[in-house]
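Proteins fold reproducibly. Next comes a concrete instance:

***
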Amino acid sequence: YPTGRRTVARRAREDQMKRFCRAQAIQRRLEEIEVTFRELEQQGTKLEKLLRAENKSPADLQTQWTNQLLYLVQKKNNLMSEESDLMIAVQELKLEEQQSQLDQKLRSYMNKEGTLKTLEESQAEQETLKQLVEVVNKRNVLIQLQEQKRLSEL
């Protein structure tokens, strides 16, 4: 048992570190997206001013500006979609962490023999199991949401 428990604890720490690294990567990407949003906003503002102010410009130049503006809008929409996916991933990471903690707590209750458990410990075990099921259901909802989003984009 001690070796098995150490292995479980080591795997839990490794999983926690993986989640932490993924969370950091997501945070960095969200910050990059925010910077890109600002840049796109500035470029879009310049193009809008050019389109409104230069009515005397040749039609082909106005068409070029309009196409550039539409391209910026499309790029911004793609970034918004990516940001939405990342926010869902953040929620999923939080739920994974919660599930891991509840799983460890439940294992500690289950490792104790039934005859040695107090009434409070048995109730706490049941409550932990109930919370674990709720977290798993929330993760399932997030996965379904991602799948629906992916299908609607296709």
Q: What stands out?
A: The chain has one domain: 3-153. The longest helix spans residues 59-111. The CA atoms of residues 51 and 71 lie 15 Å apart.
